[in-house]
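Re: that backbone. Tokens:
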């Protein structure tokens, strides 16, 4: 006696070859069509515009990282530190963005970092940042760039140095106290270019790639 399961298996292999071939064709044809659809989707790049930071500013951040190591914070890698001018999001026509930014004209100017702060508040901490001294030339540059893309969102210039793994509430007071103990001299540096970046999000963290750099020009005689 042949069991029912064995009979069914035997019957399957006795099916006409045409039927098996059709199943094979339908399976791979479906995958091929899916592949074509995926390839047909527009290629998007996640773009933002920023100012790079000099080494001496990054050294200050390393001091924060050392002194606050007991808290559950993810510090920004030195190569990822920047001052965001605007975030563009997912963009298809990158060349058009480059052409627009090429119209921006600005002279070199100086920025100074000072103090620090928390987002969203000192009692609920998600982000630690370093502040920038008020500078009209920086504000004008940021305004000109954001106006190109009709970006009217309010933005406070800052340098993000760390993010909490989970919003910190219970240990917020201790974190405030530990941060107050970190002192540094205000650092002034020259801004002579801004950069268009692509940001690829990966499980290991973002990968920032320079797409274009835009140098300052001497506008004053």
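Recovered sequence:
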């Amino acid at each position: 006696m042949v069991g029912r399961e064995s009979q069914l298996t035997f019957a399957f292999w006795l099916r006409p070859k045409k039927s098996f071939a059709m199943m094979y064709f339908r399976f791979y044809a479906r995958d091929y069509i899916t592949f074509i659809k995926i390839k047909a989707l527009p290629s998007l790049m996640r773009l933002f515009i920023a100012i790079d930071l000099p080494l001496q500013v990054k050294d200050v951040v390393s001091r924060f990282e050392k002194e606050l190591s007991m808290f559950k914070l993810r510090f920004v890698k030195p190569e990822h530190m920047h001052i965001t001018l605007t975030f563009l999001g997912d963009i298809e026509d990158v060349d058009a963005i480059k052409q627009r930014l090429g119209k921006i004209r600005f002279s070199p100017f100086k920025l100074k970092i000072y103090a620090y702060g928390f987002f969203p508040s000192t009692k609920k901490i998600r982000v630690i940042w370093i502040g920038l001294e008020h500078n009209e030339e920086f504000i004008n540059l940021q305004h000109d760039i954001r106006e190109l893309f009709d970006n009217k969102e309010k933005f406070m210039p800052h340098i993000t140095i760390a993010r909490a793994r989970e919003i910190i509430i219970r240990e917020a007071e201790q974190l405030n106290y530990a941060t107050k103990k970190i002192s540094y001299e205000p650092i002034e540096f020259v801004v002579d270019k801004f950069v268009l970046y692509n940001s690829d999000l990966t499980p290991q963290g973002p990968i920032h790639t320079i797409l274009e750099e835009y140098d300052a020009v001497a506008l004053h005689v």
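The chain is about 35% helix and 35% strand. The helical segments are 4-13, 17-40, 55-67, 94-101, 136-148, 172-180.
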